[in-house]
Amino acid sequence: MTDATAASENTPATGSAASGGTNSGGDGSGLYLVDGSGFIFRAFHALPMLTRPDGTPVNAVLGFSNMLLKLLADAKAEAVAVVFDSKRLNFRNEFYPDYKAHRPEPPEELKPQFALIREATEAFCLPCLELEGFEADDLIATYARLAQEAGRPVTIVSSDKDLMQLVRPGVGMFDPMKNKAIGPDEVFEKFGVPPEKVVDVQALAGDSVDNVPGVPGIGVKTAAQLITEYGDLEALLANAEKIKQPARRQKLIEFADLARISRRLVLLDDQVPPPKPLDELRVREPDHQRLIDFLRAQGFRSIVSRVEMEMQKDGRIADGASGSLPAPGSMPTPAVKSPATAESPAAEDRPARKTVLNVPEVRYELVQDADALRRWVERARETGVLAVDTETDSLTPATATLVGVSLSTEPGIACYIPLAHKAEGAAAAGQLDFEAPTPPKQIATDEAMAILKDVLEDRSVLKIGHNFKFDHQLFARNGIAVSPVDDSMLISYVLEGGSHGHGMDELAELHLAYTPIPFKEVCGTGKNQITFDRVPLDKALAYAAEDADITLRLWTLLKPRLVDDRMVTVYETLDRPLVPVVADMERAGVHIDKKALSDLSQSLSLRLAEIEKDVHALAGQSFNIGSPKQLGEILFDTLKLGTGKKGKTGAYSTDSSVLEELAEQGHTIAQRVLDWRQLAKLKSTYTDALQEKISAVTGRVHTAFALAATNTGRLSSTDPNLQNIPVRTEEGKKIRRAFVASPGYKLLSVDYSQIELRLVAEMANIQALKDAFRDGLDIHAATAAQVFGIPLEQMTPDIRRKAKAINFGIIYGISGFGLGRQLGIAPGEANAFIKTYLERFHELKVWMEATKAFARQHGYVATLFGRRCYMPGIQEKNAARRAFAERQAINAPIQGTAADIMKRAMNRMPGALAAAGSTARMLLQVHDELLFEVPEAEAEEAARIVRGVMEGAAHLGVPLVAEAGIGDNWEEAH
Predict the structure, then answer these.
(1) Contact 473, 397 (CB under 8 A)
(2) Could you tell me which residue ranges the DNA-directed DNA polymerase family A palm domain spans (predicted)?
(3) Which range marks the domain in which residue 582 is found?
(4) Where would a tag sit more exposed on the chain, N or C end, judged by fewer CB atoms within 10 A?
């Protein structure tokens, strides 16, 4: 089926490391190994849902068949093999059962196409390889080795990052979807290391898609730096104690075994028993009639015509291409990526459709005039759906400039509308040096917003975004209230919670088997990084239009699963309505007294210096207090405060638990170091950092609330994190005093009272606790009376304190040892308290055991509102890790239900305030608290409204109670 004639003399020799361009395949001796399993998913999601006359889905079969036709036409090779996975379980599951355990099942429309694609491979007379117990990647690694040993160059037809470890002289990769060669330079760009070090980087960074654990807190960038510095994984682990960063050092020591397991998981086995000898992997003359019969059965009339034409050319298939594939084993400079992500099926190749999607062609368009934009608006009205994404010059939506907007109306059909791109050079060609460079042709922002406003606010057109909270703020600043909106990130989050991340790139790889263009590919990195407004329009088009396109594809794939998984209510009533609410909250920001923070920083600097002097005096010498290694040597070698405990690095542990134990024994130096650490963290994290976060545009601090980051549904605050400011310490109170109301306004803080204890009583149906809450009793005193048999009138503060510790400790699965340390009693006595507590409140013990059993059976626990909190470690063989997961399983439904109730309150809040004529603005959400800024004259009424909304957010067997405070600053209001 291929032309095995030698390439012309202008073509680089097969297996050479070409300096640029591509070649037609050299002398034909090379081997092409097609990653069939990876391509199936990419073909499925690249093309619209197509069905053949009998209703069988065939879009992936069509994409796969077109790919084989093009491969055989372009690759001047004698040997081509298609490699498939055999079953999901393989030898890696034997030593790590959770490997790929959380990958979702293939879409129902794809399942019948697996067998058809194997049939297609056989119809093309190509070897079809698979081996039970091994992955396709292992077979590819094995045949790459065999071919190289035989002196034959290899091209792996795939974009899978896991295969990049195989790239070396004589072994290259080619991504047929992007028409892009992948050599050492591309691997280095992806991982920051050469191909032979990829497995070490992957072992550290892990892979949430495949459930490769890695080392928590270490990403690809950090992993690459470490491997570059130390050479390989084992050398790094052997020298982990030399790592300067304390947290990183501790993680590498603690999770060294997981890193080694992760390396075994990602390292491909190139010693697999080959299903067929290497010599049999040759392209054979096809049975044309068998191939035509297969293609006709699928309804692929265009391909049939092409094959019939080739039958008249002595059986040679020539697709009209000039030979765009690289020679096997060559590593040419990749071509610029085409805007299109897949080839469109010819019109006659489109069988009856199962969906209403109508894709005339797959293309990305640069929209530079108003008429073209209006055509896209009309197209959106016709389809009724419009994926939207924005590009900006910064990641702070409250102050960023809107650089451009991308739209997609159907999978594969997308556009980019540049709005504020600058000229690429200092002076345009032909201009004098003193002339200003001419910006590229683009629509004025005001004009574009005027055209887009109607469709973005049209309730008959569904807008789709990914993390649309960001885009909402950009459009709101331009006078557009986008509605209605679906968010593919939140849909994924509702479906799969904390089982993996929900960034667009990660979801594209997980669900579409597609790697989007990295941001650094268009904007660069480090000191050479440019803002998006300086990206040339061709690169901006490919990157931005792809974002909108992938967003639509993810939505198309994930949205139907809400019904199948019975998660519609969670999405529609909790998470989706929250997008504009939180976006407006972020945009509002909070006023900070910069001088108060500056004064506090200076005060903390003086106190730190005093403490440092005290510590040095107690130690009898100067040393770096911030160095755990030096501190350990002082405490245990110099001062002989105990034997100490050394980790695998040989350094003494000086974490907070060690220092707290020494402090309890009366060693002043340990307490002073704890004091120093606390103040140093407050200074660096808050009093110094918050000053830098005050916006020069708004004069306020704008935190970002992550909507899809926690396993329980809670919001998390970042850049800066305003949720972890200490509440009870004097320093924490001083920091909160720097959060102030604007002139003429007050801050209003409304906080749920003991909501998690109330939920324990509700979810475990503990009648005694429910009665106590309904009667308005002091719950800790009431608990003490129940557990210790002491009448309320005889209750002492000490007994109440013990009951309080148990009440809150039970929620977090506290142990006798932990409770004992907290109360200053022996572990045995503390265990007796816990036992008595669970005997008295037997319903709680029953609920806890039932919850753990449910988690073990299903892999998740659920909140009262149906949100799933996944527990990947619940089946761990390691007892300590399993016990940790069990504690999480008990806490998650409680904390998650509290988060759901808070979301219900937040979603109802804007409407309730507006209906009452209140102009109060919600500023922050911190755990069980909401913070508002409200005109002074409205403060009392606003407090009444907010309390009513929060207390009415859920109707349970126990009352919800919200407490309000009003003040000029956060501390005063709280």
Answers:
(1) yes
(2) 732-938
(3) 357-425+438-590
(4) C
